[in-house]
Amino acid sequence: MSTLLRTVYRYHAWANNDLFGKLEMLAGESQKDERHSAIRLINHYYVVAQIFAAHLSGTNHHYESDNTVETPTLSELRAAVAASDQWYLDYVQNVSPAKLSESVPFTFTDGDKGYMTREEMLTHVALHGGYHRGEVGRILSIFSITPPWDTFAVFLHQSEPSRRQQGDKQPMPA
């Protein structure tokens, strides 16, 4: 089990949840196309997370592409992403360091072959989600909706307020 990966996935789940809260503000008819684009972006990184979860667990996935043909509703996608985030939180809580360093061969949805360690896959999924959350944040800002302040540093300081104690040397939590 990696302490850093556990923290990264706690952050990932926190950032996803915050983003969905902001997306609910894109409700007007004039924002329909941008809302749809935002949902498609999130659905894409959700699908990729599901594909890599299958690779990590040694199971088959049913995806033929890195997105679905149908676009889920915002509430359906929120529930699916929350379930995916919980799967990853459970996975990183229980995976051994030896397992993290294992390389896993797989096939991308376009047929190309891939080969990554489990740790690399986990890192990819978290970074990939962050990239697309940033794109969605840009969409929000077009409508003067302040995008989530979803940096890793903000998460750490909100989840561990003692880090804000300036001048005091605080031991880092284990």
UniProtKB/TrEMBL annotation:
Record InterPro entries: DinB, DinB/YfiT-like
Residues reported to bind a divalent metal cation: H44, H128, H132
Alphabetical keyword list: Metal-binding
Superkingdom, taxonomy of origin: Bacteria
GO molecular function: metal ion binding
A Pfam short name: DinB
Database matches in SUPFAM superfamilies: DinB/YfiT-like putative metalloenzymes
Signal sequence residues: none
Membership in a protein family: Belongs to the DinB family.
PANTHER family on file: PROTEIN DINB, SLR1116 PROTEIN
Protein name in UniProt: Damage-inducible protein DinB
Native source organism of the sequence: Bradyrhizobium frederickii
